[in-house]
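debug: dumping io for the single-chain case to check the tokenizer round-trip. Nothing else runs in this session.
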Amino acid sequence: MKPRTILTFLFLVLVLIVGLSYTRISLHKASAPPEPPRAPSLSESPVRVYGRVEPLGREVFVGPQQSRRVTRIFVKEGQGVKAGQVLCELESDIERQSLRVAGARAEELARRLDLALDDLSRKEKLLASDAIAEFDVSQKRLEVKLLRQQLATAKEEVELRKRELATLTLRSPIEGLVYKFDVRVGEQLTPQDYERIVLGKQEKQVRVYIESFWTGNVHVGDRLIIRDSETLAVLGEGRVTAISPYVGTRDFRTEDALERLDTKYAQAILRMEGIREIPIGKMVLCERPKSGK
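debug: decoded output
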């Protein structure tokens, strides 16, 4: 046979062997069961949680102990206040009159006690000279004792009326900022209106609600990006300072289509850094990039 014919024959044999091997490998792969899909790892996923902006340490609500009309206002929204500073005064005509009556009663008893003490001193001298009987002195001593008890009770009544009057002057319990002051002169303010006066520190934090499946992937010290929950615009950053040891439900809903009503959440505190212009109560979206902390 000619060399050219031999080479052609060998080439055809080689092509046949390669084709049969490829077919065998393809049939083997086709008959093998498919590989299970790789489950996504939460540790490799970016954390996305919702929260609400609040003053550092939470809000402080101020309200009256009883329903009264507002007579004077001393502060306005956005104003800084010190602890003990007067916020507003409520109608107190009845309490002021009660204080005057209690004070007059105490002054009267004090005068009667002074007269009784003078009379007792005089009678004790007469008793020493046997000018009067022991019975008269004993009666006067009992009268002095009774007046002292009545005077002590009257003084306690005066202090009680002063405390009642003081409750009608609403004061700031902390040093901070007046975030909300929805009060006007002449309006009736009731104990149920405690949310109309809201105070807090100037520094702010985000109370973040972490879904239960994220709790193991959010740690104290993590840095999160804070976004507007509506526009997704970046507002700043913050660092996780505390995580609650319990889970529960939250009191608000979001626009997230995947949100479930039965989801449990742990609360965490995100300390905002250098961000003060965000109003309290605003809902924000907090994210941690894949890069980590």
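debug: round-trip ok. The CA atoms of residues 125 and 201 lie 68 Å apart.
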